């Protein structure tokens, strides 16, 4: 891999970044105590990260196309500039194998206590800092507490490098199971003789030219339809909750909560729909209760969520860069009935799915693919402010590998994903099922939403309420 142009959507994320709105994804992985000491784990992290080719690439401007940029190998790459160790002081104890819930003496409802709470606080601070743009745009931090205790790894990847699914595919290379499988595949590939590639002209044939022209016309037609939908869906005078529409402070707070996946499925079996419908309804209910706790009036118009959806082919290997679209969903926080909220969410998502991920105002990513590089470079400041007119909060579900994962022999206990805040946004929610739990990371502007941990607690409360209302044991 020598050089590769940034795709239009990747270029858009690269130019949308500002000091107050760094455009990196994140994940906080928590591990049970293991056999290795921090020095061994740090070197293992560095070794495995250095072996991932994508993490050796940095962004450089190019002459053509005008305004474009390309990924190129960083010839001065030093993995130790990206992988660092931070000791978490006065972290206390999680009781060895705690899941961060009430079992370790921490707060109830699956909220973190002890070492985990300190790691979450520190991760929020580290997420404030933009990645250095002259280097490959990623960082990893090993966070440790007392010797022999649990530890965590914070991963930061620029959104230009990958969408959520690609980020998981890249970051999974640090785990024992994935790294071992890759090493075996690499050795097997080295033993095989490369097949000769027949010569091929770089000139496209007539059928290829015709096919490309038809595809381009279809893409432009789809983009025009999405653009019209965006205009119709935009709110020139958005009136949401003050917390979600506050001015950016550049600070970040992170909150995490773990929900029981089987409990989510129990609700789904009774009410229908999907597990993701239940989780979206859980968040809608949590938002309602959190706002009422704060003494806020519920807004006249329900807040709108941007719900990303992958456009990658099922079962296909994730390619480089971003390949996704999104749905727009009104969160029915004005409805006092939890089951009514879930029904509204399910019907809204069914309408979105019937229309498809490449249509409607949520498919704004389709527009980015049609713009020339120069438009992304100079239009980013204008486009960045448009997010507030279209949606109030991002809510995304990022799938993880189903197999059990570990690092240096230490089992992975939880992985809380983190999404970036678009300009004009104060809250982003990301969810990942793993190990029988749904691990949720809430990233908030620290000044606008200083009590984001209460919002996380409300999610646990809302799931408990839905379970109670759908209990069919009697």
From TrEMBL:
Residues 93-113 have a biased composition (Gly residues). It catalyses: an acyl-CoA + a 1,2-diacyl-sn-glycerol = a triacyl-sn-glycerol + CoA. Residues 321-466 form the O-acyltransferase WSD1 C-terminal domain. Pfam families: WS_DGAT_C, WS_DGAT_cat. Pathway: Lipid metabolism; Glycerolipid metabolism; triacylglycerol biosynthesis. It is an enzyme of class 2 (transferase). The keyword Acyltransferase applies. Keywords: Acyltransferase, Glycerol metabolism, Lipid biosynthesis, Lipid metabolism, Transferase. Its EC number is 2.3.1.20. The keyword DNA repair does not apply. Residues 6-93, 116-278 form the O-acyltransferase WSD1-like N-terminal domain. Residues 88-115 are annotated as: Disordered. Belongs to the long-chain O-acyltransferase family. This is diacylglycerol O-acyltransferase. It comes from Streptomyces ficellus.
